[in-house]
Amino acid sequence: MHENPTPQQILEHMLSAMTQRKTHLPDRSENIFFILSAIWMSGFFLLPFEKLHQQLFHICFTLPGVWILLKNRFNAGIPPSGILFSSMAYGACYIISQAWTPPDSTVDHLSEIKRVIYLFMFWITLNYWMKTSPEKMASLAKVLTVTALAGIVANGIIFYGIEGHGLADRFVSAGKLWNALWSGAAYGALAILIFGLMNWRDADLTKKEKILYSLAFLIFSAATILTHSRGPIGAMFFTCTIIFLTCKTNTKRKVAILAAATILLLALLYASYDYFQASIERGQSYRLELWQGFLERAREHPIFGFGAGTQVFIHAPGELVDGWTHYHSVYVGSLVELGITGLLLHLALCCIVIRTGWKHRHDLHARIALILFIYTMIIGTTFGQGIITRQNVQWVLFWLPVIILATFPRTTRAEDESPRH
């Protein structure tokens, strides 16, 4: 016959149950926030409506970011680092620049401030599950790979099969990838991701895995080329070459493979010249004229720029670029809107990110983040408005590697173990 529990035993049981719940809560919240992050990033490839993807951002990042801040009593939990401080300096410059935007401009100051807040929420949410469960980054890569492949197949059927486009047309996808530049940038990044994993020095892939990785790489590479976006195409081949030259394959084999790949690419270019003739002949697409026009405008406010979000028009009467407002370069965007001060902060952030990635290059996650960041820096030379914009492809490609590398400690294990004088 069981004895009835005493009030003290009941109280101890309740406290024990509450403690167990608190122990499991962080794990559950980390999993939930990881799933939400994966859903939103997969939306680039699967969601057909751009506005829906933007609204989903608030569910996946804004609300979780607020929850994390309230739960931790407004402690974001982001470890201090050079990357964090340089990002904060750029963000502060972006917000402060609202004070000197031209009085006749149509800048929505609240919208520009919200851009920085959204970036902060994105950072908080990713950091929340990355710092305690770094293995989830591998799961995120798998999810994005699968969804992107599914998106390519679905959009390929629509673009070439239903809509009847040909290879001479620039391949685009639905939703956030409606622009060929965005499509090319996204697919090129995934091609680099797969190629980096294939050539990781400690990768011990089975024959089946090698075949699957190779097929995925070829599909992403082909999709990038079909967008006719020369910046992502060139950056993809350049970054993949760097990855290959730094892998563990012996030098003679590297030279032979590179020579064979170069010959094959030239042969394919020759055979498909009729399809890509228009893209080749359009040259630099007036970018030099655009940059020259914006550099002339930048001289009007060289130190602090026109202010973030200001629509700066090119004054070139009688020329095609007259009245254009698109910088087609993130670096030109920083210079025009934030002046030399903003451009230097931008470049300083890039240097610190590269330095951190190089310092931790023996870690797979850091190495992949580094090569993706280098790829993003290259494509940012010829397109994009800036690094704090709407949550588009270029925004994610820039800030995701930054946030990943910011989770790494300031020093490596070898530096910690080295004798100090």
Write a brief structural summary:
This protein is mostly helical.
How can the largest sheet be summarized?
A: none
Question: How far is the N terminus from the C terminus?
Answer: 71 Å
The parts where pLDDT drops under 50 for at least 5 residues are 17-25
The gyration radius over C-alpha positions equals: 24 Å
Number of helices: 15
Give the tally of β-strands: 0
The amount of helix comes to: 55-70%
Shape: globular
Q: Please tell me the overall pLDDT.
A: 86
Please state roughly what percent of the residues sit in beta strands, choosing from under 5%, 5-15%, 15-25%, 25-35%, 35-45% or over 45%: under 5%
Q: What class, by secondary structure content?
A: mainly alpha
The helix-strand sequence is HHHHHHHHHHHHHHH
